[in-house]
UniProtKB/TrEMBL annotation:
InterPro entries: MlaA. Pfam families: MlaA. The keyword Transmembrane does not apply. Keywords: Signal. This is Nucleoside ABC transporter, periplasmic nucleoside-binding protein. The keyword tRNA processing does not apply. It comes from the Bacteria.
Amino acid sequence: MNKIKTRLSASALAAAALLSGCATGPNRTPGDPLEPMNRTVFKFNDAVDQTIAVPIAKGYQAVTPTPVRTAVSSFFSNLGDLGNIANNLLQLRITDATQDMMRVVINSVFGVAGLFDVASLAGLPKHHQDFGLTLARWGVPAGPYLVLPIFGPSSFRDGVGRAVDVRFNLLNYIEPAARNPMYVAQFISARSDLLGATDLLQQAALDKYSFVRDAYVQQRRSLTYRGHGNDEPALPNYGEPDSEATPGAKRGSGEPGGLPQYQDPGDAGSGGSPSHSNSGKAAREPAGLPQYRDPGDDTAMKKGGGAAGHTAAPGAGKAASPASGAAAH
């Protein structure tokens, strides 16, 4: 079975390479210069899927209880973590490789050979990796979009990666008598898990080929750049001028002018506030009101030469005249 899968991958790549010369043209979709050939292969794959794979997957789903299907899916997912470990090491993602290794150990021991995903319950994330992503990590371009017979959506880079990923599958190293039925069970389980996506595709997509192509390209890009578009993750912004200020922090003297300067009544008891030319007036006004500098005080200061008498509150002279008259009488 191992040799058959390897030969199928190689044959699919060879057929795509031979047909690519007559399928290219100047008006093809960018990123999909092999679209005519890809559409032909896609129709073939879709016919095989609808005729054979989907009925088998639906039958499996109908006769198998949900807990059993979940256990089977978890078992093969646990085997897949071995490939994740290898590719994370090749990508020098040591933390991810360590977490995936812990997942294999925990699920194999406490999850009864991987039938239960105990590691996810313990908070250990699963890192989906393959050799195509490893090649992308080291700068190998994806190349044109490519639909492989039987295997489905791919690219030139990911097609090469598939041939290597076969070597990371533990099933390849057991006896054929046990390996081949497990391959069949793995395929049926995986196809059963995708029945919901197939129903959505049948209902929502006007052009199934374009829908699958765009979804595949976006998914691979997201896995390659880990959800950050075409860039590496952005670094945190420390101390930049446009960064959000610390709550409660006061702006320095470089704050743009043009705004009235108000004094909080609660600051009256603090001794660090600067003195102003109208401090005498502020001291005589009732407490609890905000103190601000009237622009008219500057004019009065200029006319009076800075005398303290001109800083008194308006109406203070009128209040003194009756008092002096009363004293004279």
